[in-house]
Design brief:
two-stranded antiparallel sheet; binds zinc ion; 37% helix
Length: 238
């Protein structure tokens, strides 16, 4: 199955927090979108890997993505080496996305920057035909996505461009709240963490409004890039 956009996250919920509005909008425009989670988020302060699996599949249904897979790398301890790169390369060649979205280049959680570089490096390597991969006995063909964009999650990184997600924020929050074990819950008896505060939950809305305010739209999500963005015409920009 070929996809237009493949979004990677170190943990289930990273993609929702970073770029769910953009994915919802692209799907509404007819694009096919998939999500690959690198780990099951088993070290998360609240919940468990099994609960996160269920939450991730509920969120995927809310978003309307075509596929969601989990590579079951070790939460907190996966590294950017050949073994892990090869796993990502196989996913990129399997789904042949034009665009890859991945974690923020720098963030509070160490897995985010690691996952960001791992996926980005694998996108480059996936295009080298002398790196051979086989899936279920079938040799894969080389594939390099046209663009790799990094979404923004915990830290306020200055975006290189933003996507207008006006009209998709309610659904975005719905997908995030599918991770009921992870975020603010006045009735929870589980330990607190930086992402369980009410402020964090509210920050999802105020950040998208602020990026929107600065861009002349109501709500926006920001991304950073690894090379200059090009447009055909100045009129392409909104
Ligand atoms: Zn994360």
């Amino acid at each position: 199955m070929k996809l237009d956009i493949l979004a990677f996250g170190a943990h289930p919920d990273d993609v929702e927090l970073g770029c769910a509005g953009t994915l919802l909008k692209e799907i509404s425009l007819g694009k096919s979108v998939g999500i690959i989670d690198l780990t099951r988020g088993e070290l998360g302060t609240r919940g468990s890997a099994v609960i996160r699996d269920q939450e991730a599949s509920t969120a995927a249904a809310i978003l309307g993505v075509s596929i969601r897979e989990n590579l079951e790398m070790r939460d907190g301890f996966f590294v950017n080496d050949e073994k892990h790169q090869m796993e990502i390369i196989k996913m990129i060649r399997k789904y042949q996305p034009e665009i890859v979205l991945c974690n923020a280049i720098d963030d509070r959680h160490i897995d985010h920057a690691k996952g960001s570089k791992l996926v980005s490096d694998a996108c480059f390597l996936a295009g080298l035909m002398k790196i051979e991969t086989t899936v279920e006995g079938e040799k894969q063909t080389a594939w390099r996505p046209k663009m790799v964009y990094h979404y923004i999650q915990w830290k306020n990184i200055a975006p290189d461009f933003v996507v207008d997600i006006t009209g998709f924020t309610d659904k975005k929050i719905e997908a995030i709240l599918a991770y009921g074990s992870q975020f603010y819950d006045a009735n929870s008896n589980e330990p607190e963490s930086p992402i369980t505060s009410k402020n964090f939950l509210e920050s999802l809305n105020y950040r998208s409004r602020d990026l929107g305010r600065l861009s002349g739209v109501e709500h926006a999500e920001g991304f950073t890039v690894e090379r200059y963005l090009a447009v055909n015409s100045l009129g392409d920009l909104i």
